[in-house]
Write a structure and sequence with these properties.
This protein is of the alpha+beta class. It is built from 4 helices and 3 strands. The protein is elongated, with a radius of gyration of 14 Å. The model has no long low-confidence stretch (mean pLDDT 95).
Length: 69
């Protein structure tokens, strides 16, 4: 299991949160998959993309880094 940490501001301080790849699959995959299907079509997404692509997008969006837990 891989884990990823990212920071975001809360009341002037940085809050650091860590998510597992299972968390990301549950929370982000449905949104990502739907948006990709809207843009490229379900057939192309099913043929050319996988969760790893979703995960890489999530990492970039959140400026996350893989951590050992």
């Amino acid at each position: 299991m891989r884990y990823f940490s990212f920071a975001y501001p809360v009341d002037g301080d940085d809050c650091i949160e860590t998510k597992s790849e299972d968390d990301i699959r549950k929370e982000y995959w449905p949104y990502w998959y739907e948006k990709m299907c809207e843009k490229y079509g379900k057939e192309k997404v099913d043929a050319d993309y996988c969760f790893e692509d979703c995960l890489m997008d999530w990492i970039v969006v959140h400026w996350a880094q893989e951590v050992t837990k």
